[in-house]
C-alpha cells in the first residue's frame, strides 16, 4: 500500500474512534496557499480523491478550497512568504465557511 492509502486508512480509524467515544470527527481539507489560486489549483485531483474516499466511507470531510476562491491573493492568509501554513485570517475564513456550509461553530 502507498503512503497516501495508509493516511486515508488513518483518517477512517480516527473517525471510528471518535464515533466509539460519541464524538463527530471532521476532516477539513485546506488548499495549499502557496500561490494565488485564480481558478487554477494544481492539487484539485488530490482534493477530489480525498473527498471521494470520505464519501465512500461515510466520513465527514469538507473541502475548504471554495472558501478561498473569491480572494485574488493568498498572501494575506499565509504565516510568512516562506511558510505557507494558514494564518489566523485563513482560519477565520474557514471557520465562517464551515458555519455557512456545515452549520459548525468553530471557536
What does this structure look like?
Strands 1-2 form a two-stranded parallel sheet. It has helices at 3-20, 44-57, 65-68, 88-102; strands at residues 26-29, 60-63, 78-80, 83-86. Helix 2 links the parallel strand 1 (26-29) and strand 2. The model has no long low-confidence stretch (mean pLDDT 90). The protein is globular and about 40 Å long. By secondary structure, it is α+β, with helices and mostly antiparallel strands.
Span between termini: 37 Å
Q: Biggest sheet, open or closed, and with what strands and sense? A: 2 strands, parallel
Approximately what portion of the residues adopt beta-strand conformation?
Answer: 5-15%
**How many extended strands?**
4
> Strand order within the widest sheet?
1-2
Q: What is the count of DSSP helices, taking H or I runs of 4+ residues? A: 4
**How would you sum up the global shape?**
globular
Which range best describes the helical content: under 10%, 10-25%, 25-40%, 40-55%, 55-70% or over 70%?
40-55%
Average pLDDT, rounded to a whole number, is 90
Low-confidence stretches: none
Order of helices and strands: HEHEHEEH
Q: Using only CA atoms, what is the Rg?
A: 15 Å
Q: What class, by secondary structure content?
A: alpha+beta
